[in-house]
Specification:
7-stranded parallel sheet; about 50% helix
């Protein structure tokens, strides 16, 4: 039986991905801040889920909690980081920006480093993280969110390069969603909004194929391409 951890399994993509992994024969460690939601999920398949409630912004606790959960699973083949936050912040409230960075940068880094070090020690593994198409360019409406997603994208690229240099079968998948029908998809005039089920199905396929980068849904690759083509002078005026 393969063993996985989903960080951020209380709702949205993380929850649905945990369900999908369990349905495909994985033993799954599910984490998040809201223990009650994790326990409810565990009750749907008690033999498939192990609960560990913690907050990845508690940097000192991350290694201990992940190590303990891995021991309970009996090892680890796959870790998916689906925990993140974002908020429109045009007035540049520093408190909001720091809250975003605490989770999307500091918490992300703590989980990524622990996972990669474990996989390097054991000689194999697969680390995946939900980033965002937002990481491709900056935005005046949500600077910290867009910047933190760019950080994640480049960090994953760095880990992928490191794995290649080590010549180890360690896979790193960067999952870049557009709009998915979750609590994170706030705002007006949203388009190409995918259901959680459709998004998760494509993510699971990408994980099975050990993809480096995947856009969710696939059509968002077009938007990513167009984002990169926007001249700096034009983007500055948007």
């Amino acid at each position: 039986m393969k063993r996985a951890i989903v960080v951020g399994a209380t709702s949205g993509i993380g929850r649905q991905l945990a369900i999908t992994l369990a349905a495909n024969g994985y033993k799954v460690g599910i984490t998040g801040r809201r223990e009650g939601l994790l326990i409810k999920l565990q009750a749907t398949r008690p033999d498939s889920f192990i609960v560990s409630a913690f907050d990845i912004t508690d940097i000192d606790a991350v290694p201990q909690k992940l190590r303990q959960l891995t021991d309970e699973l009996g090892g680890l083949d796959l870790l998916v980081l689906s925990s993140g936050t974002g908020k429109i912040n045009p007035v540049l409230d520093t408190v909001i920006e720091n809250q975003i960075n605490s989770l999307n940068v500091s918490g992300f880094t703590a989980v990524a480093n622990w996972t990669f070090n474990l996989f390097q020690k054991q000689g194999w593994g697969h680390f995946a993280a939900i980033t965002s198409i937002a990481g491709i360019r900056g935005s005046r409406q949500a600077p910290a969110y867009f910047a933190s997603k760019a950080y994640q994208i480049h960090y994953l690229e760095s880990l992928r390069q490191k794995a290649t240099n080590l010549k180890l079968p360690i896979y790193v998948t960067d999952i870049r969603p557009g709009f998915v029908d979750t609590d994170m998809a706030a705002g007006e005039n949203l388009f190409w909004v995918a259901s959680v089920e459709k998004a998760t199905s494509q993510i699971y396929s990408a994980l099975q194929n050990k993809r480096d980068v995947v856009y969710i849904t696939k059509r968002w690759r077009i938007i990513a391409f167009l984002f990169r083509l926007i001249p700096k002078a034009l983007h500055k005026r948007m």
